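Re: [ENG-882] Designed sequences occasionally contain unexpected residues at chain ends

Forwarding the minimal case from QA. Structure tokens:
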């Protein structure tokens, strides 16, 4: 009897110690989150009085162009990116599609973003030291070139190594620069002739962008960062209404603007490829998965199997960033296993819509 009681007491003490350790870990992560809010402005804090997430505009909006302050020159420009970030991912895809790998260098930041935001960490796969300032955090790069800057520290960043200035940190503008303004730096005529924002399709592309960005690209964040039921309900309804719209569109044509791959496809892909692994669970976008949409799923596989899309997709960085960095959503930083999805499976886009 005494032995049984002693065992029970031992188990009870073990359970208490386990709970204390778990609580300590939680407090550490909450403390880290509080520190982050005082040093680094997280996207999750950008909410209106009704609890709806409102993304702030990018701060640096200059352009690389002939005759301007920032002319296109081989080796002059550098990209700071996160492999986890869908906005930065766009720029890596566009850079590779246009064959600009040797003309524009890049550095990948750590997937883990806590106290001081994006950091440089050569101990993480695919990451390296900051080659320009030897900075520890990306915020230092922003403050080096703009000492009074108090906005959000975001990726991608297109940086001018010659003038030591940030040119642009708006992904939609960077990919358009890569599309046309760097053509003289493309390795051959084949890459120079590629145009992902052709004049005859600009109206269609812009029309698609105008409803995909707020409802899908940014819509998943509006779901995940919502701080009221009303804000979440509105965001998630808009998200799936417009995913249904994409599915219907792709049942009639191969790409979003018709028969040609355009920037609209680049912009949508970086959200779709993250959806089932991250947004479905982490951001509570769990009405349906992309794999449940036959046309969209086949379309995504076709894009992924193009070298510029698949080779720039790093699911390890993607899943760990969202699940370990967003302490307000996942306080313990537990990385869940995720779905078993094969992007290399055959697709039917070529047979369904031959070019």
């Amino acid at each position: 009897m005494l032995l049984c009681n002693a065992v029970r007491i031992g188990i009870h003490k073990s359970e208490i110690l386990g709970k204390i350790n778990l609580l300590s870990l939680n407090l550490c992560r909450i403390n880290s989150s509080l520190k982050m809010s005082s040093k680094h402005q997280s996207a999750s804090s950008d909410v209106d009085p009704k609890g709806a997430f409102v993304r702030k505009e990018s701060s640096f909006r200059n352009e690389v162009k002939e005759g301007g302050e920032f002319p296109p020159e081989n080796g002059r420009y550098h990209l700071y990116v996160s492999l986890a970030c869908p906005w930065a991912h766009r720029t890596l895809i566009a850079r590779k599609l246009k064959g600009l790998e040797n003309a524009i260098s890049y550095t990948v930041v750590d997937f883990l973003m806590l106290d001081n935001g994006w950091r440089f960490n050569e101990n993480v796969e695919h990451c390296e030291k900051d080659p320009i300032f030897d900075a520890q955090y990306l915020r230092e790069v922003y403050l080096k070139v703009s000492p009074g800057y108090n906005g959000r520290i975001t990726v991608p960043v297109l940086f001018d190594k010659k003038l030591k200035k940030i040119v642009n940190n708006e992904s939609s503008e960077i990919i358009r620069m890569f599309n046309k303004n760097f053509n003289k730096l493309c390795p051959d005529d084949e890459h120079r002739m590629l145009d992902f924002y052709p004049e005859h399709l600009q109206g269609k592309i812009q029309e698609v962008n105008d409803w995909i960005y707020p409802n899908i690209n940014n819509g998943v964040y509006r779901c995940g960062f919502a701080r009221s039921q009303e804000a979440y309900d509105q965001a998630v309804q808009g998200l799936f209404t417009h995913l249904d719209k994409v599915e219907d569109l792709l049942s009639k044509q191969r790409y979003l603007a018709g028969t040609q791959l355009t920037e609209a496809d680049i912009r949508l892909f970086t959200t779709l490829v993250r959806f089932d692994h991250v947004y479905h669970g982490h951001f509570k976008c769990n009405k349906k998965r992309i794999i449940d949409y036959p046309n969209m799923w086949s379309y995504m596989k076709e894009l992924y199997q193009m070298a510029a899309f698949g080779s720039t997709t790093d699911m390890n960085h993607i899943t760990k960033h969202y699940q370990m960095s967003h302490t307000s959503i996942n306080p313990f930083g537990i990385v869940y296993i995720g779905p078993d999805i094969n992007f290399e499976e055959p697709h039917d886009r070529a047979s369904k819509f031959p070019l």
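QA comment: On inspection the terminal residues look reasonable. The first strand starts at residue 77 and ends at 81. Proposing we downgrade this to a documentation issue.
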